[in-house]
Structures are given as structure tokens and as C-alpha cells.
Amino acid sequence: MNAKNGNFRMMVNSYGGPEVLTLQEQEPPAPGPGEVLVRLSFAGVNPVDGYRRSGSQGYTPDLPFCPGFEGAGHIEAVGPRCSDQLEAGLNIGDPVYVAWSGTGTYAGWCIADCSQVFPVPRGMELSRAAGLFVNYFTAYRALVFRGSVLPTDRVFIHGGSGGVGMAAIQWCGFLGNEVWATAGSSEGLELLRQQGVEHRFNHGREGYGEEIRSQRPEGFDLILEMRADINLDRDLDLLAPGGRVMIIGSRGETSLVPRKTMGKELDIRGVVLMGNSPDANRSIHRSIEKGCASEDILPVIQQIYPLSEAAQAHREMEEHKALGKRILDCRPV
User: Fold this and answer.
1) What positions belong to coiled-coil segments (predicted)?
2) Band of the pLDDT at 6, cuts 50, 70, 90?
């Protein structure tokens, strides 16, 4: 099927594996009050898209649906009562990135609330801008809003080579924090090196936790955790007194010894991207603009796939080969 004119979208008609992603024709929807229509060029691929597609991890969206929450493109149309909600200066035809779309972004068009589209940072390609929302807004929320990070805090990122991990590393550079991180492969460790991470460890290697503790016996003030079901108990051993661990991801149950939190008065805090208010999202966007201007913020793209190959993007994502961000090309063929 040829997605000519961009009038196709990926749909999920039943829960299942990547094969349930189906390319279907799409008519451009009309924006309602307080909404904008965005002609998408690129869309970000995220683990939550796979959970929703498979009906797992507590996600059971109504069927059928179009996956994807983030993307980048151009404003195509503006609905009534948008002028006071759009970012200052935005007009039809302007390049924007989408920070949540209820209609899905694996598509040629999407509808978004006026308060959830932001101008693409100066000089940034649309393909990179498509990966800003989920990763950078999540990492910022974990570090700043939930983690209350201080400039003197030492931060440990348990899983630094994926999208959120990369974003967190870059935010630490912008905020001035020393950061240590892990990856699960030699390629991931090289990516950490390229991002300026001096202290990097392979979390697939036996005994890596002891190696970290030997190099940093004082512990860490803040840990960002991508696989709490595997690592949470180890995180408590790595925290400094009064430290906090932010749970960003988990794929199952875990067990821990509660007394470990008592002696050092440790905090375990959950992080959910949708906890951000519109004002909070605007604040993060302002920080993204500053971070791009200072060259601290630049999304790392692992691979760009045609929209028609979304199933392959999901397969590779679920093989846990995280080396940055996977992006779909939604432009006309």
C-alpha cells in the first residue's frame, strides 16, 4: 500500500504482537474548539506504544486506535478558541512538535490540543523534534519536578542508552550535575561515552553493582530507574543517605527489604509523564529551548523507519536494543 499524499495511518484493530499494526487510509480530521490539525512528518516510537498495542502492563485502550503520542510537522488548521492557548507567534504552516495527541501520531495527520503543540527549536530537524516530548519531558519531570535535583547532586541513570536515559544525561549536562550511567551492550557504552559520561558500566555484567559501589562508596543522591522490576533493590544499596530513586519504568513485580529504606531514610518515587500540567509542559519547553541554544539538548536517533514499517520498529524495540530514539517517517511517499 502506497501512503501517497500522507493520507494513511497505522491502526490497531485487536491487541497482539507487532503484526497487528495495519496501514489504513486516513482522511484529515477537522480540529474542534481549542484544537489544531498537524500535518505530521515524523513520529516517535516508545515502549508505551507497544504496551497499548498488546494490551499489556495495564494498558487496554479502546479498539480500534492509532498509536503514538508524539510527533513533529506543520500546523495545517486551527480550530475555534485557540488564539489564547497557542504558543505566542504560532501560525498555520509553522513547524511544531506535538506533546500528546489523542488521535495518535503514527499517521499523516493528528489532532492535538492547542496547549500541546510547541514551536520546533531553532535549527532542529523535524525528525529529532519528533522525539522531544516523551523522552525529554519525562526525564525533566523525573529530575526536577519529582526528584528535586540540586546542582550538587550526583545522579545515577540505570539504563542510560535508551531514549529517556539519553535525555536524562543531556539534562544533567544542562543542569550541571555529575552523571554516572549504565548500558547493556558495548554499543550502548560507546553511546554513553559520546554523550560525555565518564563513569559508565555494563548492567549485563555480573558484579557491576559492586564495581559501582567500590568507585562511589558515598552513594548517589538521585537514581533514575528504567527497570524497577530488576534493579530496585540494587538501587537502594547505591543510594546515599537521604537519596531518592525515581521509577520511570517497570515490566513486572519485584521484592525488596523495606528496612533498607529506613537506615538511610531513602525515598522511592514514581514518575508518570501525564502528571505534567499545561503550565509544567510550557516550562519544560522553555528549558528545551535554552538547552538547544546551549547545545546541551539534541535527541539521539537510533533509526528512522517508513510509517509502513512500524511493525518492524516495534519488533526491534521489544528486543531491548535501546541506542537512542526510534522514529517513523510519516511523510508522503
Assistant:
1) none
2) low
The angle at the Cα of 220, spanning 280 to 285, to the nearest 5 degrees, equals 20
Contact 253, 58 (CB under 8 A): no
- Report residue 198 as a C-alpha cell: 565518564
Q: Measure the CA–CA gap between 93 and 194, rounded to whole angstroms.
A: 35
CB 311 within 8 A of CB 21: yes
Encode pLDDT of 254-263 as tens digits.
Answer: 888 899 999 9
Every domain of the chain and the residues it spans: 4-132+299-329, 135-274
Q: Which residues pair with 239 in a beta bridge?
A: 220
Give me the pLDDT at residue 5, please.
47
Q: Rounded to whole angstroms, what are the CA distances from 155 to 33, 47, 204?
A: 43, 23, 20
Domain 4-132+299-329, what architecture? Alpha-Beta Complex (3.90)
Could you give the CA distance from residue 112 to residue 205 in angstroms, rounded to a whole number?
43
CA distance 25 to 6: 9
DSSP letter for each residue of 190-222 = HHHHHTT-SEEEETTSTTHHHHHHHH-TT-EEE
Give the pTM.
Answer: 0.95
Pull the grid cell for residue 70.
Answer: 508524539
pLDDT tens, position by position, 8-46: 999 999 999 999 999 999 999 999 999 999 999 999 999
| Residue 135 CA from chain centroid, whole number | 2
**In the structure grid, which three cell numbers stand for residue 132, read together?**
522531544
- pLDDT for res 89: 82
Q: In this predicted structure, which of 2-11, 61-70, 128-137 has the lowest mean pLDDT?
A: 2-11
Residue 126 identity: L
Domain 135-274 fold is Rossmann fold (3.40.50)
Grid cell digits, residue 158:
540505570
